[in-house]
Amino acid sequence: MKNLFDQKKGNKCQCGKTKDPNGNCDGSHLNIQNILKSIVLIICILFSSITFAITSSSENSKEINTKKSTILWKGDKVTGSHEGIIKIKSGILLFDNKKVIGGEFEIDMSSLSCTDLSGEYKSKLEGHLKSDDFFGVKKFPTSTLKIKKIKKQKGNVYKCTAEITIKGKTETIQFNTTLDKNSANAKITIDRTKFDVKYGSGSFFDGLGDNMIYDEFVLNIDLSF
């Protein structure tokens, strides 16, 4: 019994060729389909290879030299200020055709030290800064800074939008960085109270007098890579 296709079209295949008595044609349409599939597959492979080559050659990362890089911190209070250093544990900067496009850094909070005091007073301040009153270093041994967006300004100055995480809390910040051949530097101002560091803050406690500590502290960052 002939199928519906044969009743309407006669004894011909989809490719237009006349079928033999067994209902078979010479297979031309199958050959054409196979050839087209092969061409599409070759194009896909070539496109993937080209894309991979472009990505590999244009994007690269540079590891931060943690021994040569420094972070200087400074905090002010009513009666003066204190300052010190903190170390970068690890970090990278991301580039696309020599243009910086991002970066990520991990800061070793246990390395926090004071440089304007010595002896007993130095030890007491460092211990207090590492306690739960301030940065809770035992529970939060690292902080992170992730650059999410960079926009070139004049010359070699870039405006950065980043996410900084301190004591498990993340906030978005903006700052400018100056990029040279193998170095970068930036000055970042941070409101500590946004990270639940409220000790001695006049924004949360009254009657502090000369014991008040200002909410903002500054990080001066110099990176080598």
Question: Could you characterize what this model shows?
Answer:
The protein has 225 residues and is α+β, with helices and mostly antiparallel strands. The chain has 2 domains: 4-58; 64-224, Lipocalin. Helix content is 22%, strand content 44%. The protein has 3 helices and 9 strands. The protein has helices spanning 4-9, 28-58, 119-130, and strands at 59-63, 70-77, 80-96, 99-114, 142-152, 157-166, 169-179, 183-191, 213-224. An 8-stranded antiparallel barrel has the order 2-3-4-5-6-7-8-9. The chain is elongated and about 100 Å long.
Helices and strands in order:
Elements lengths: L3 H6 L18 H31 E5 L6 E8 L2 E17 L2 E16 L4 H12 L11 E11 L4 E10 L2 E11 L3 E9 L21 E12 L1
Antiparallel strand pairs: 1-3, 2-3, 2-9, 3-4, 4-5, 5-6, 6-7, 7-8, 8-9
Structure, briefly:
The protein has helices at residues 4-9, 28-58, 119-130, and strands at residues 59-63, 70-77, 80-96, 99-114, 142-152, 157-166, 169-179, 183-191, 213-224.
- Name the structural class: alpha+beta
Strand order of the largest sheet: 2-3-4-5-6-7-8-9
In the predicted model, the low-confidence regions spanning at least 5 consecutive residues are 1-9, 49-57
CATH C-level name of the largest domain: Mainly Beta
Keywords:
eight-stranded antiparallel β-barrel, Lipocalin, 3 helices, alpha+beta, 225 residues
